[in-house]
From TrEMBL:
It comes from Quercus suber (Cork oak). It is an enzyme of class 1 (oxidoreductase). Its cofactor is Fe cation. Its EC number is 1.13.11.-. Residues 1-454 form the Lipoxygenase domain. This is Lipoxygenase. Residues 444-454 have a biased composition (Basic residues). Keywords: Dioxygenase, Fatty acid biosynthesis, Fatty acid metabolism, Iron, Lipid biosynthesis, Lipid metabolism, Metal-binding, Oxidoreductase, Oxylipin biosynthesis. Plant lipoxygenase may be involved in a number of diverse aspects of plant physiology including growth and development, pest resistance, and senescence or responses to wounding. The keyword Iron applies.
């Protein structure tokens, strides 16, 4: 809406409201408004969290506008607290800043949003989706599939270390008084957020990349587009690059499954395979075993789809959620794992301190130096690749398929495709038109990284 120098009278205010509504409708119709909504995931835990002196949080919602250059700009932040008194509002709504005071309020509000994001990222997207929910499939594979079984052999490199890492996480990260409880806003209630997301939100059938993008309102099915999807944000690196990898995995898995299972009866009569899938759901995911959304396992197509999702989760999805943690979150003021102060309102005793020295107030709202240092160390370790990491397309031992030339050829094709995808992503990353992945500083950082690895 254009700025006006005049104080609006009631009729011009009505005109402004109408104009704002028209612009909002236009933005909605053009798919230019997006939301990151942590309200329902965080709000139920806020009373317990905010009773601690050194933990303060909101349940946040942030609305973004998709700008003409394809970047997302935050325009509204809603900060919610559980209602305590019907006469006192439990929500604050902040819009883009207009002066020095609102600029610092906006910074504080953004830090609270990022704190929500940091917690949900770690507890739901990283831990729950790619570690905890994978565990039943891996345990069951070891219990029910022979090491000679073709599906065991296909999954094997994607099951390495997950159980060991999960055990270490239970010992040092998510345990009582562990790193997560100490360093995240949600403190000792952190695992409740994981559990609630598992109970009310997680669905295996929506864990594949295309379904995930559709579920989040970022894509729609369109058979005329590559991968059968039309993205609403044209330059969305996670989706654009991820879909290349998803499709390559899908093609490899389809070829592999069709080679060993030529018709549905072969899938249904494979007792080891059926026992693996049955146990994964009925023992491993027992709380959700009666959910109607579990994919069936009656045909080669069903098997390909489930395996593609599992391999995607263990490889590219986990990489996207894990290895960028330090580069994205290592600078605490940008993405604090916890906040120690709320955004002050004008009638708060803290407000005068905030106005007198907003920078100091902002810094005092962030984690302490000790909390920050420990968190940085942890995510630096988490972001590090193992020295014997196996990358997609780089299978170390193909001799197990030495008699199956079709399978060997499929792996070689996959390997070549992964190299092609790598080159394509590198090309995209230096395209100055793709503003969500390329800009000031990004090239210098890459050069520095390369020389460090030399
Ligand atoms: Fe991980």
């Amino acid at each position: 809406m254009p700025a006006s120098a005049c104080r609006p009278n009631s009729s011009s205010r009505k005109q402004q409201d109408a104009s704002t509504e028209i612009e909002a409708n236009f933005a909605l119709e053009e798919n230019r408004l997006y939301i990151i909504d942590y309200h329902d995931k965080i709000l139920p835990f806020l009373n317990q969290v905010n009773c601690f002196d050194d933990r303060k949080a909101y349940a946040t919602r942030t609305i973004f506008f998709l700008t003409p250059i394809g970047t997302l700009k935050p325009i509204v932040i809603e900060l919610s607290l559980p209602p305590v008194d019907p006469n006192s509002p439990s929500k604050q709504v902040l819009t883009s800043p207009v002066d020095a005071t609102t600029t610092w309020m906006w910074q504080l509000a953004k830090a609270h949003v990022c704190s929500n994001d940091c917690g949900v990222h770690q507890l739901v997207h990283h831990w729950l989706r790619t570690h905890a929910c994978m565990e039943p499939f891996i345990i069951s594979a070891h219990r029910q599939l022979s090491v000679m079984h073709p599906i065991y052999k296909l999954l094997h490199p994607h099951m390495r270390y997950t159980l060991k890492i999960n055990a270490l996480a239970r010992q040092y990260l998510i345990n009582a008084e562990g790193i997560i409880e100490n360093d995240f806003t949600t403190g000792k209630h952190s695992m409740l957020i994981s559990s609630a997301a598992y109970k009310d939100w997680w669905r295996f059938d929506l864990e594949g990349l295309p379904e995930d993008l559709i579920r989040r309102g970022l894509a729609t099915r369109d058979p005329t587009q590559p991968h059968g999807l039309r993205l609403f944000i044209e330059d969305y690196p996670y989706a654009n690059d991820g879909l290349l990898i998803w499709s390559a995995i899908e093609e490899l898995v389809r070829t592999y499954v069709n080679y060993y299972y030529q018709d549905p009866s072969m899938v249904c009569s494979d007792s080891e395979l059926q026992a693996w899938y049955y146990e994964s759901i009925n023992r491993g995911h027992e709380d959700l075993k009666n959910a109607s959304w579990w994919p069936r396992l009656y045909s080669p197509e069903d098997l390909s789809s489930t395996l593609t999702t599992l391999i995607w989760l263990a490889s590219a999805q986990h990489a996207a959620l894990n290895y960028g943690q330090y580069p994205y979150g290592g600078h605490i003021p940008i993405r604090p794992p916890l906040m120690r102060k709320l955004v002050p309102k004008e009638d708060d005793p803290e407000y005068a301190k905030f106005v007198a020295d907003p920078e100091q107030y902002f810094l005092s709202a962030l984690p302490s130096r000790f909390q920050s240092t420990r968190f940085m160390a942890v995510i630096d370790i988490l972001s590090t690749h193992s020295i014997d990491e196996e990358y997609l397309g780089e299978r170390k031992d193909l001799s197990t398929w030495s008699g199956d030339s079709e399978i060997l050829e499929a792996f070689y094709r996959f390997s070549m495709e992964m190299k092609r995808i790598e080159k394509e992503i590198e090309k995209r990353n230096v395209d100055p038109n793709l503003r969500n992945r390329h800009g000031a500083g990004t090239t210098a950082k890459k050069k520095k990284k390369r020389s460090a690895s030399l």
